[in-house]
Amino acid sequence: MPYDDLRKGRFNESSRAYFVTTVLAEREAAYFRDFHCARLAIAQMRNLHDAGAVDSLAWVVMSDHVHWLFRLGETHTLSEIMKAYKARAAHLVNGYLNRQGAVWQKAFYDHALREEEDVRAIARYIVANPLRAGLVENIGDYPHWDAIWL
User: Fold this and answer.
1) pTM check: above 0.85
2) Would you list the domain boundaries of the chain?
3) How far apart are CA 71 and CA 16, in angstroms?
4) What residues contact residue 102 under an 8 Å CB cut-off, 6+ apart?
5) Does the domain at residues 3-147 carry the CATH identifier 2.60.40.60?
6) No. of H helices and E strands in the chain?
7) How do residues 24-61 score in pLDDT, each as one tens digit?
8) CA distance 52 to 7
């Protein structure tokens, strides 16, 4: 799907919950198999949460992509949040791996949740990714996820 097609219909509403997915530029690189790289990506989600730009509800970092469920704050658009997240995480990952170049695909997928959608069910779907991928048999054994309902 072309990048511009992903932006069609995108709107921003503070306090609305968004489910976003962003993927590594080279999926086969799987940078987040490295524990430290995954923690660098997680730290940037936490930084945006702590700054009040988003209210993180759930997330999981897989080897080649990130799923993140959050409520958008008052100060930034969804695109600004994702641009900041991807830029900061890429800078740290590239520094740690002593490499240059794109870390992320240009686009990201987003879904603005409707009122009738069950936020907790979507959070469960997100954090169950490692189970569905066969990486662990118990989600507690996977180190790169969190949800506010714990």
Assistant:
1) yes
2) 3-147
3) 5
4) 25, 90
5) no
6) 5, 5
7) 998 888 999 999 999 999 999 999 999 999 999 999 99
8) 24
